[in-house]
Amino acid sequence: MWLQLKKVFYHLIHLKGRIFFPFVIGYVLLAAAVALTLEPDTFDHSMLTSVYWVLTTLATIGFGDYAPVTDSGKFFTICLYVTGIALISAFIRKIVKSLAHLEQLRVGGQLNYSGQNHIILVGWNDKAKLAIQEILTSDRSTDIVLIDKLDKLPIVDDRLFYVRGDATGEETLLQAGLPRAMGVILFADHMTQDVYAAKDPLLVDGKTLLVATAIAALEERLGVSVHITAEVMNEKHIALFKHADVDEFIPTQEMISHAAVRSIYTHGVTQMYAELMSRQCTEGMYEVPKQPAWRTYRDAFSALLDQGATLVADRGDLHINRKLDAPVPADAQLYVICDRETLARIGGSPDEAAGRVH
User: Fold this and answer.
1) Is the overall model pTM greater than 0.70, yes or no?
2) Claim to verify: residue 244 and residue 290 sit in the same structural domain
3) How far, in Å, CA of 108 to CA of 150, rounded?
4) What's the CA gap between 1 and 209, in Å, rounded?
5) Where is the RCK N-terminal domain (predicted)?
6) Same domain, 226 and 314
């Protein structure tokens, strides 16, 4: 008899979680109901009190505030000890194991991201690492989802999530929550860049373009629009990326070459670039909302200058200083250079989608 009972409980303990967990909950409720039936006065005629007593008993805490007084109640308690303590121990062990397994799946990139207004980074390299650090430092509310084929998440942070897979695949993009994302940053594949760029530079931008095309196709199918920024190794390929609905580009090679040449003709220009791009610098480039009183660019320029900010651009137009008397469009996207304190007075936010330009 005892051997058969032992086999039954051994089998129950090793049941899969979807059966075992409900069984344990049912066991606790049934034991509480039996205890309440045997000794209603002892447990104040309360099912909650009875459940409380069963759990403290099975957890071997035993506060002693409630205890059976009848022989039948004491016998039931003995049965509860014999059958339940091992069951609760296994229950707790399975919970801990399940949590560890979930964390393993998360780090391994096998879980779906369920949040929204996050930033998706495609491709892991040193630039992606710096971008993650930048987001985590400058924006304390936005999550990051990294897509790559690494074995596990390279950086552990509560706001960093990982999806392991091919970024050209629709399933991977949906797993990363693309339709609900604030934006996507596509970095050039560093392996392709290191191994094949010298032989065939088209391969680097070609792989990035494939990902951008896959994202555009999914956006069109779902009827959504996500801001996409892509790292482009060759400026001649930007036209191709525009056809894939990429919004902004980072022509890495041209930017470095331009800065290097400018440093010869204008000494100290690279220091200015570095200061503007640095997280440690108090000054930065931010987007500010258009005010109704700003009818012309001159109005906006003067009002912002009085508050300690310099208006430098409307979207990608850096020549507004040549057309100060032109009207400010209703959909203007104005950028200023200022510090965070000034930005707060103006009414902008350092954590907006446009945010700080780096």
Assistant:
1) no
2) no
3) 8
4) 70
5) 119-250
6) no
Cβ–Cβ under 8 Å, residues 134 and 279: yes
Of 107, 132, 158, which closes a domain?
Answer: 107
Interatomic CA distance for residues 286 and 348, integer angstroms: 8
DSSP sequence for 297-310: HHHHHHHHHHTT-E
| SS3 call for 162 | strand
Per-residue pLDDT tens, the chain, 358 aa: give them.
Answer: 444 554 555 555 555 556 777 888 888 899 999 999 999 999 989 999 999 998 888 887 878 788 899 999 899 988 888 888 778 877 778 777 777 767 777 778 888 898 999 999 998 888 888 889 888 887 788 999 999 988 888 888 889 999 999 999 999 999 999 999 999 999 887 665 555 545 555 777 888 899 999 999 999 999 999 999 998 877 788 888 888 889 888 766 666 666 666 666 666 666 666 666 655 556 777 888 899 999 999 999 999 999 999 998 898 788 888 899 999 998 898 988 888 888 888 876 554 434 433 3
* Side chain identity, residue 199: K
- Domain range holding 155? 119-255
Is residue 161 within a helix (H) or strand (E), and if so which, with residue range?
A: strand 160-164
Q: How far is CA 345 from the centre of its chain?
A: 29
Q: What is the CATH number of the domain that holds 126?
A: 3.40.50.720
Residues 284, 350: Cα–Cα separation, whole Å: 9
Cβ(304)–Cβ(336) under 8 Å? Answer: yes
CA atoms within 13 A on the CB side of 62: 5
Q: Note whether 245 and 195 are same-domain residues.
A: yes
- Residue 285's H or E segment, with its range, is strand 283-288
249 and 323 housed in the same domain: no
**Domain count of the chain?**
3
Distance CA 67, CA 35 (A): 10
CA of residue 10 relative to chain centroid, distance = 41
Burial 198-213 (b: 16+ CB within 10 A, else e): eeebebbbebbbebbb
Q: For residue 144, what are the β-bridge partners?
A: 119, 160
Contacts (Cβ under 8 Å, ≥6 apart) of 65: none
